[in-house]
Write a structure and sequence with these properties.
globular; alpha/beta
């Protein structure tokens, strides 16, 4: 079976923390199929096996007619979720997830080899996990160190040792010079690291046995992927320098497209390459989790509708769950400021939303002060995107248009990579 080139589709697959989702789009970006599948592993089961079963089950859920039209597939996975594999691509142990901090025991080693303030200087970085692996008894059988998206793509195309420069950032890959730095090449296990390509690069056609099993065209291309957060950004609609995405989830995450790369490790600011542009990011500890401490979702909706959002609240809150902030202020001891607490819950919520919006504006000001492009437009993702009062408040502070992202699913961003770019920044390089 070969591809129907008259009506080609492009499949994006997103592997998150609790499950996976797939979206098939056409050349114009219109959605033709959308499916999801939750992970089933218990702690005693092999997580990698669950991923493999989920990947195939997810594709099989897509209607057969759409499957026969899929021209290319790209996947995203959680950043710094990694596997150590033998020469056949079989994991030697359970994968280490994105938030696994066992690398804390090798931090002195990383400080001795990596440049000061490098992004790998974190207990959860991919490099920290690789160094931890190197101290285990099974390490002598290792042939490949792969990220989640790399390994999942291998299951489809059969080529080992290939990654993309988004996933490889936290193992130490130099995304500016597009190569591994000398300090990383000097490590005794450097040979385990994958060859790095631009996200969205064609690697190979799907393996024949996989195509037969899943009902995919024999010449369906499998492409290099990205991380889940970058895929979500690609889905947002932002394509030009100065455009940004704010994620209003449990925390507040800012991402701004810039022609200038920005790095400030102490504040958690770093840049991903997007073709010829840079995606500059920072994350605050404020966000929706603070709101949930005081209000149920239903109460939030009712009270928000009563806020006079065109008027600034006199309350000057810095909403945090506990002491400590990363960005735009870098102060591990910064206390929450939630006083005074008015009796009127509408006034209290107005103050909280105003405080979070003020922090967002300060965050973008911080990125611009460090050299990023001037902010021109903000797309919004996450649960807070539906709150119209909050949107009005944020637009007043940001002084630029604030729009809800037309697409907020990382799988859609991965589908854009499969299609051959997301519309800006020349993804391929």
């Amino acid at each position: 079976m070969w591809i129907d080139h008259a009506n080609p589709l492009y499949l994006g697959i997103d592997f998150g923390t609790s499950g996976a989702r797939a979206m098939a789009i056409d050349t114009a970006g219109s959605l033709h199929a959308q499916v999801s599948h939750r992970f089933t592993s218990s702690p005693v089961q092999n997580l990698a096996t669950d991923w493999q079963q989920t990947l195939f089950a997810l594709i099989e859920q897509i209607p057969s007619q759409q499957r026969r039209q899929i021209q290319a597939i790209a996947l995203d996975g959680t950043s710094s979720t990694v596997l150590l594999c033998d020469a056949t691509g079989t994991p030697l142990e359970h994968p280490l997830l994105y938030n696994d901090g066992r690398g804390i025991v090798v931090m002195d080693q990383i400080r001795a080899i990596a440049p000061p303030e490098h992004i790998v200087l974190s207990a959860t970085s991919s490099l920290a996990k690789l160094l931890w692996f190197s101290q285990q008894s099974y390490f002598h059988n290792a042939a490949y160190f792969l990220h989640q998206a790399d390994w999942l793509a291998f299951l489809l195309h059969g080529k080992l040792g290939i990654s993309d420069y988004h996933n490889s950032l936290k193992v130490g890959y130099d995304v500016e010079r597009l190569g591994y730095p000398a300090w990383l090449r000097s490590l005794s296990f450097f040979h385990l690291l994958p060859k790095v390509l631009a996200p969205g690069t064609s690697v190979a056609i799907v393996k024949s046995e996989v195509a037969d099993r899943l009902g995919l065209p024999a010449n369906c291309q499998i492409k290099t992927g990205t991380t889940d957060s970058i895929a979500a950004f690609l889905a947002s609609g932002a394509t030009l320098p100065g455009e940004a995405v704010t994620s209003l989830g449990s925390t507040l995450v800012l991402k701004l497209l810039s022609r200038t790369r920005i790095e400030e490790e102490r504040s958690g600011i770093y840049s991903h390459r997007l073709g010829n542009l840079w995606l500059v990011g920072g994350a605050s500890n404020t966000g929706g989790a603070v709101l949930q401490q005081f209000f149920s979702p239903d109460k939030l909706a009712v009270l928000s509708a009563q806020i006079q959002s065109d008027q600034e609240s006199p309350l000057r809150y810095y909403p945090l769950l506990q002491p400590g902030e990363r960005f735009p202020l870098n102060d591990p001891n910064l206390p929450p400021c939630l006083e005074p607490h008015p009796q009127n819950p509408v006034e209290f919520l107005h103050g909280l939303l105003e405080g979070i919006a003020r922090i967002e504006a300060l965050g973008y000001q911080r990125l611009q002060a460090l050299g990023a492009d001037a902010l021109t437009q903000v797309y919004t993702a996450g649960g807070g995107a539906a709150n119209s009062a909050w949107t009005t408040i944020r637009a007043r502070h940001l002084q630029v248009p604030v729009l809800r992202s037309p697409q907020m699913e990382a799988a859609y961003g991965a589908a854009l990579l499969a299609r051959g770019g997301w519309g800006g920044g020349e993804v391929k390089r």
